[in-house]
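Task card 7
Instruction: Convert sequence to structure tokens.
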Amino acid sequence: MVVVVTGMHRSGTSSIARAVSRLGVDLGAELLAADPSNPRGYFEDRVFVELHRRMLTAAVDTGVDGWHECGWTDPDTFDPSALGSFRAEAERLAEQRSSAGRPWGFKDPRGSLTLGLWAEVLPDARYVVVYREPWAVADSLLRKGEGPFLAHPDWAVKVWIAYNARLLDFARTHREQCLLVSLDAIRSDPEPVIAQLAAAVGGSAVERVPDAVAAIEPGLLGDENVLLQRVVREAVPECVALLAELDAQSGSGVRGRVPPPALGLARDDAAELLACWGSGPAAVQQLARAHVEQARLLAELERVAEESRARQALYLDKERESLARRDYIEELEARLKARDQG
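Output:
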């Protein structure tokens, strides 16, 4: 049995991989070290990470700005056909790991963009695809100072869309092998997801479910940034639509997400807020208030203008009525004068 854990960066894949390892799945001997951003560890095998970095860098136009080692540029230039040249290396690596004769797997967010190749190399693998709300991912990337996002905060949501659109396509075309699950569902009730994985792994994994469930620590996954959610919802509404598609496809218990009150901004104004998020939440909140006040004043001006247009229309109607009455009076006077003269 092979288990592949993936999902957009900062989506909780490390917690899931930790649980998978407790089920008895070997995720590699040379794992990336833990750090303050991931105090329990990444559970990413250096060999797979390095392979994926080379794959994804080869699959994009490095002459275009972006996050090259993670397979994204602005605009998106990712070419999945470029991954084919790495197939032989992937097959050798899979054969080497399978030779141990025990359940194994790997976890790497970059694998989100290489699943098509791995599905050919590992046709019987089980894929655990985790997704998280775009504003939560963006907040985590920005707090971590990941990649190029401090200079380009709006890229965090663009990368989220690029990754999760491809993950959704994979989940739809590999329904029997793919477990698509929301991090929210895992945080609220991890046992059903872990039990499914344990059944797939087989052997003693079922007995290890309680220990694996304990690996999911909701407190490590961060709190919700409501202001950023409001900004992202209005700046990039297409990510909200994609999130709804992921929820519908996953069937993981996420229903009827309740959004916070809207800021009431034009999309361009919300996009400006998102683009300057790296200045800090306080500065962005101040700018948000200024944009909201501007929107309120513009709405008030439009209301006054509409009232003015209505008054002007009424004035013109009255003026036409007055002119018509004057013409009628002049006509009557002319008739009376003609009669008197006759």
